[in-house]
Design the sequence.
């Protein structure tokens, strides 16, 4: 079903429990679609600033009051805090029958909302596959953003319609696949930030004044090639089997950035395995390369 065929949800009052980076942005996107943010809860100064920027004039109230006022409640708290929050809201009678309860955790499907479901709530798991800054730019980035959607079958159309109203693209994720789905996103996005930050530090150490300017075009091209071609986009000394170059890299990292050695070796080994399996790395070259990596890993353990 395309976006033009999706049923539009009735106009809803929207509440946010947990004014981190995600909740206010989603509530703002829902507001632009015609829904009405009515209450938000947040404790820290940063949370209050985000709410004031993205949801001006929406009152800050305790979580129980958010549920009292809102037809649709966004639970946007850290993954580890979500089960206890849901249980607490259910135990205190804060949940109203027929209320849409939406969490944005990538890790969980709707089973984490079972205490709320037993209290009459309508459970949805809508996870935006996006990194958030806590500013208005997040709302703009939702355009075309994929959402991992999990919901009971009878709520599937409503869940997908809400995602489309926020500018996103719904992608159905089975309950049992949520942890794997989330691991994939963390591997790609979170680890990418670490890799890029390490690369910039190393370039600065090598005397490059603007490492961001140097890496931008290179990493942009690498990402585009990888998304288009997968393993066929692999280049560099590991994919070529240049064992001597890799050994030199490890030696320099030990001198200048010993904390980066373990990550380099782990990624080099994973790259070598994929290059070998895809036929990019010739077996006769792989032997020397893997020997270098094994020796470096052994030295790293001592």
Sequence:
């Amino acid at each position: 079903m395309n976006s033009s065929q999706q049923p539009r949800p009735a106009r809803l009052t929207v509440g946010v429990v947990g004014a981190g980076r995600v909740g206010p942005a989603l509530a703002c996107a829902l507001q632009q679609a015609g829904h009405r943010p009515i209450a938000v809860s947040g404790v820290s100064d940063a949370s209050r600033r985000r709410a004031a920027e993205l949801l001006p004039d929406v009152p800050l109230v305790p979580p129980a009051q958010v549920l009292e006022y809102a037809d649709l409640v966004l639970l946007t708290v850290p993954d580890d805090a979500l089960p206890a929050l849901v249980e607490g809201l259910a135990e205190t009678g804060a949940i109203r029958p027929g209320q849409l309860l939406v969490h944005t955790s990538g890790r969980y499907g709707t089973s984490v909302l079972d205490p709320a479901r037993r209290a009459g709530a309508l459970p949805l798991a809508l996870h935006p596959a996006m990194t958030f800054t806590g500013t208005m730019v997040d709302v703009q980035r939702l355009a075309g953003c994929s959402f991992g959607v999990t919901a009971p079958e009878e709520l599937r159309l409503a869940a997908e319609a809400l995602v489309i109203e926020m500018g996103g693209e719904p992608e159905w994720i089975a309950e049992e696949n949520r942890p794997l789905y989330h691991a994939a996103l963390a591997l790609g996005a979170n680890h990418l930030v670490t890799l890029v930050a390490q690369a910039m530090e190393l370039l600065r150490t090598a005397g490059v004044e603007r490492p961001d300017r140097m890496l931008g075009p290179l990493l942009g091209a690498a990402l585009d090639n990888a998304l288009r071609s997968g393993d066929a986009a692999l280049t560099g000394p590991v994919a070529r089997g240049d064992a001597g170059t890799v050994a030199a890299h490890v030696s320099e990292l030990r001198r200048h950035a010993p904390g980066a050695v373990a990550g380099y070796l782990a990624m080099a080994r994973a790259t070598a395995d994929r290059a070998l399996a895809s036929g990019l790395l010739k077996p006769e070259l792989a032997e020397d390369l893997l020997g270098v990596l094994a020796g470096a890993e052994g030295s790293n353990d001592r």
